[in-house]
Amino acid sequence: MTGQLPEVLEVSGEKYPINADFRNVLTIFEAFADKSLTDREKAYICTKRLYRDDIPVRAYGEAVRQAYWFCDGGDMPRTKPESFQIIDWKHDEHMIFPAVSKAAGVIDIRSLPFVHWWTFLGLFGEVGEGLFSAVVDIRRKIGKGRKLTKYEREFLSTGRDIIILHSDEELQDIRETEEFLKKFI
Question: Is the pTM of this model over 0.85?
């Protein structure tokens, strides 16, 4: 155990430097969430953004596997994933960054010039009580069909937009409805 954070990935016996900053990986995750992209396009975006050098075609499959391994936190122990979505990196960013900054003991993690993705993941795992954890707890209870407390029901009624995750199509419908209603208000 050395605690080293990888700044290179080995692909077909060659070491390739990577852009390991958390902002880069979150940009990759935006591509992963884009339903208009194919899996092949997502893999291409991931490798182009993560590796600093071009990968030879013969090694591309392994490069993709290594990139996904890195973005997934490496050999970090995992819990069984939920069958429903409880976090959306884009939708929740206004809550995630303050929560991670609090865990890091800094004013704003985004103001630091470089934070390794795995450091960010570690801090993310240490997020304590606050708005983000309350929202995730409510989403988890809703997803599992559990009863909400009185406080959680009140919070849901006033904070529905930050708690409920919508698909892109649902968000477009909501925006169009709001625009339509503005004509009558």
Answer: no
